[in-house]
């Protein structure tokens, strides 16, 4: 689920041959763009549990397509839309130093 923003070039291969490669005209490129413009609140509990709102552009509308992490901890998605994700930061007490 999800991919970092960028341009990806790949080759598709099937039983009857393939299309696309870095050396021929059939190259297939997919550009993924996600833009984070702001987040709130700017601080929260050191134990986790803070409800975080991310605003931006081109987020997915399916919660599992928008993995969010704060440090090494997941922020569990509550709601998602094209321009906003709301999530709750997981338990930070298990974070390693």
Q: Features of this protein?
A:
97 residues, 0% helix, two-stranded antiparallel ribbon, mainly beta
General description of the model:
- With 97 residues, the chain is mainly β.
- Helix content is 0%, strand content 47%.
- It is built from no helices and 9 strands.
- A 5-stranded antiparallel β-sheet has the order 5-6-9-8-7, with no helix packed on it. Strands 1-4 form a two-stranded antiparallel ribbon. Strands 2-3 form a two-stranded antiparallel sheet.
- A hairpin with a 2-residue loop joins strand 7 and strand 8.
- The protein is elongated, with a radius of gyration of 18 Å.
- It starts with 5 loop residues before the first strand and ends in an 8-residue tail after the last strand.
- The model has no long low-confidence stretch (mean pLDDT 80).
């Amino acid at each position: 689920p999800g991919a970092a923003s960028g341009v990806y070039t790949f080759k598709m291969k099937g039983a009857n041959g393939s299309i696309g490669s870095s050396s021929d005209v059939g190259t297939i490129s997919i550009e993924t763009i996600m833009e984070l413009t702001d987040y709130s609140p700017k601080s929260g509990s050191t134990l986790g549990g803070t409800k975080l709102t991310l605003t931006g552009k081109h987020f997915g509308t399916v919660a599992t397509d928008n993995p969010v992490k704060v440090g090494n901890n997941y922020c569990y998605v509550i709601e998602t839309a094209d321009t906003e994700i709301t999530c709750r930061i997981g338990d930070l007490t298990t974070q390693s130093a």
